[in-house]
Amino acid sequence: MPDETVTLLFTRLAGRVPASPWRPRLSAEWTERIAGMRSETARRRTLAGLWLLHTALPEADLGELVRDTEGRPFLPAGPAFNISHCGDGIACAVGGTAGLGLDIERVRPVSLRRFARFLTPEQVPAAHTDPAVFFRAWTAREATVKAGGRVGLARIARVRIDGDRATLDGDTWHLQWPTLAPNWVACLATAAPTAPAGVTTVSAPPV
Asked: In 3D, which of 148, 153, 184 has the Cα closest to residue 166?
């Protein structure tokens, strides 16, 4: 039986949210990194993701947040976490001690002429009538690549999926697709089997 659990928090950004309610206490490096972002959208998404992390781990000191050699943020004392965003949706998965990857996508029309290579031959006809079929496959690949720590389109193409397992570079990852919200798809990839992830939708701080 799985002995680890993962918690997933989800929120939607609406309107212009002031920076201060989203910002836990961060190190000087992270404060400067966020302030230096040219895109307000990127800045807001980053702050929202860190706010979700702080909400999930209120006792954690996010001033200790550092980046690994691939630029991925982590807490030296754990637990593992991963943040994903799409449009106005932001999610943060927290739990376990090993690799953890999360990808979320809003279901929307997609050009299968460009992305059919990421589907199995059996999935292509279904994806033409139901875009969610494509996004289940895509989020599985993205989550696996993120769990492995090194991203890139070439690595996404190398992921092999068999049911609720994925393989990449000789490593096996366990997949689950928690129910996030209507018209949204989420996938978690973990190094070890975990219990079904609990999903909590939280409201953004008031504008």
From this structure: 148
The 3-class secondary structure across 1-43, one letter per residue, is CCCCCCEEEEEECCCCCCHHHHCCCCCHHHHHHHHCCCCHHHH
- Counting Cα atoms < 13 Å in the Cβ hemisphere of 88 gives 9
Higher-scoring residue by pLDDT: 207, 5: 5
Q: What is the pLDDT of residues 39-89, one digit of tens each?
A: 888 888 888 899 999 999 998 899 999 888 877 888 988 899 999 999 999
Is pLDDT at 23 greater than 70 in this prediction? no
At residue 178, the 3 state secondary structure works out as coil
Question: Taking a C-beta distance cutoff of 8 angstroms, is the pair 11, 92 a contact?
Answer: no
Quote the CA–CA distance of 95 and 39 in Å, as a whole number. Answer: 30
Domain ranges of the chain: 7-201
- Give 100-117 pLDDT, tens digit per residue: 999 999 999 988 887 888
Q: Give Cα separations from 33 to 29, 87, 103 (angstroms).
A: 6, 21, 23
Return all residues near 195 (Cβ < 8 A) that are at least 6 apart: 2, 4, 5, 6
* Residue at token pair 């943060």: 92
Fold of 7-201: Ribosomal Protein L22; Chain A (3.90.470)
Residue 93 scores a pLDDT above 60: yes
